[in-house]
Amino acid sequence: MRDPKENINLVLDILEQYHPEARVLLEYKDAFQLLIATILAAQCTDEMVNKITRVVFEKYKSPMDFAEPNISELEEIIRPTGFFRNKARSIVSCCQALLVKFGGEVPDNIDDLVSLPGVGRKTANIILANCFGKQTIAVDTHVFRVSQRIGLAAGKDPDKIEFELNDIIPRERWSRATQLIGFHGRKICHAKKPECINCPINEFCKTGQEILGSGDLISKK
Fold first, then answer.
1. Domain boundary among 85, 113, 131
2. Which end of the chain is flanked by fewer CB atoms within 10 Å, N or C?
3. Residue 20: is it exposed, middle or buried by C-beta count within 10 angstroms (0-12/13-18/19+)?
4. Does residue 15 share a domain with residue 68?
5. Total structural domains in the chain?
6. Are 154 and 209 contacting, i.e. CB atoms less than 8 angstroms apart?
């Protein structure tokens, strides 16, 4: 097996060739919409979030609209995303803090972003990369899983994985690496049944080599 850490640029180059369409799948028009969409995306598919935000953003267009809503109505709209009561409270609290602390504008730095209710490093890094052009690594469930499986990182929580990847991946590739690794997790390196036989980077993957060596192969039909 080839060491993925020593060959990280090659791994990313291969993923770029294999997943040129890799991108953020959440639909948004600005940093504020991406902030709300990312909060809703916790433990929910991007497809469902996009379906819901098309309705949400027709009714709630600014932090002010979310700051004092009919909470029951908001909960009902976002119910399909799961954990809707907690998400509604987080969104309302976040928007209230945006208005009080930042004049309703989404801040462009990690410290201010994570000071907002409901915003962790993953959400903040997604916003910084996709709305402000900053190089960040956002560790969602897919980036977390793939990084551990391949052997790029060994951390037990997303923040530790982020810092490990920061040390391995060249800074100028952080944001694109997030998209590529995340897309690979969606398309090939699935949680329950990774398609190791179809994986273009299986020679760099400790888990893939174990599965391939065992003969427990999963291939697309």
1. 131
2. C
3. exposed
4. no
5. 2
6. no
Which amino acid, 213? G
Could you say which of 110, 131, 152 is where a domain stops? 131
Placement of tokens 């929910």 in the chain: 44
Closest CA to 36 of 23, 54, 21: 54
Residues 110 and 153 in one domain: no
The total of other beta-carbon atoms located within 10 Å of residue 54's CB is 10
- Output the domain CATH number for residue 84: 1.10.340.30
> Within a domain: residue 101?
yes
The confidence score (pLDDT) of residue 215 equals 58
Q: Which residues of the chain have pLDDT under 50?
A: 218-221
3-state SS assignment for residue 218: coil
How is residue 64 written in tokens?
A: 């002010």
Please report, as a single letter, which amino acid is at residue 85. Answer: R
**121-134 pLDDT per residue, tens:** 999 999 999 999 99
The catalytic residue positions are 122, 140
Q: What is the 8-class DSSP label of residue 105? A: P
Q: Give residue-wise pLDDT tens across range 43-88.
A: 999 999 999 999 999 999 999 999 988 999 999 999 999 999 999 9
pLDDT at position 218: 47
